[in-house]
Design brief:
The protein has a single domain, classed as Roll (2,3-Dihydroxybiphenyl 1,2-Dioxygenase, domain 1), CATH 3.10.180.10. 21% of the residues lie in helices and 36% in strands. The two termini are 26 Å apart. The protein binds cobalt (II) ion (CO). The site of cobalt (II) ion has 6 residues, from strand 1 and strand 5.
C-alpha cells in the first residue's frame, strides 16, 4: 500500500475480479445483436431490475462480464445518464468477497458512497455503489456473488 498517514484506514479488502464493465445503451436488443455479431459475445444472463428501472444483458468475457444496461422508465438514473452524457461506459463493477466489509473499508478510506448499506443486485448478487465524484469521475460498484 502506498500513501501517507491519511491512508492509514485504506484498503482492508481484496478485489478478486473485474465483475463487469457496464455500458449504458438506448436500445438493448440492438446493442446485444451488435455485440453478438461483431464480437461473438454470448448473453449469459438477462434481467429487468424494477427497483433500479433498468434492464441488463450480461455478456460473458472469461470470468467477467460486459453489462449492457438500458433504462425501463423515464426517472431511472440510467435514463438521466443517457440524457446527460449519451451512450457509453456507465460504471465499473469490482468483485469482492464481502460487500459490506468492502463498503465500510472504502468509507473509512474517505470514499463517498451512494449506498449506505449493501443491497440486492442482479443475478442474486449483493452490491453497493460509490459516488463518481469521490472516484475520479467513475461510478464504482462493489459486487459480491
Ligand atoms: Co453494475
Amino acid at each position: 500500500m502506498s500513501g501517507g498517514a491519511k491512508d492509514a484506514a485504506a484498503h482492508a479488502f481484496e478485489l478478486t475480479e473485474i465483475d463487469h464493465v457496464a455500458i449504458a445503451v438506448r436500445d438493448l436488443d440492438a446493442a446485444v445483436a451488435w455485440y453478438e455479431r461483431t464480437l461473438g459475445a454470448t448473453v449469459a444472463h438477462r434481467e429487468r431490475i424494477e427497483s433500479d428501472g433498468v434492464e441488463e444483458a450480461l455478456l460473458e468475457v472469461a470470468d467477467s462480464y460486459v453489462q449492457l444496461l438500458t433504462p425501463t422508465r423515464e426517472d431511472s438514473p440510467v435514463a438521466k445518464y443517457l440524457d446527460r452524457k449519451g451512450e457509453g461506459i456507465h460504471h465499473v463493477g469490482y468483485r469482492v468477497t464481502d460487500c459490506a466489509a468492502a463498503l465500510a473499508s472504502m468509507k473509512a478510506a474517505g470514499a463517498t458512497t451512494i449506498d449506505e448499506a449493501p443491497r440486492p443486485g442482479s443475478r442474486g448478487t449483493t452490491v453497493a455503489f460509490v459516488h463518481p465524484k469521490s472516484a475520479f469521475g467513475t461510478l464504482i460498484e462493489l459486487v459480491q456473488e
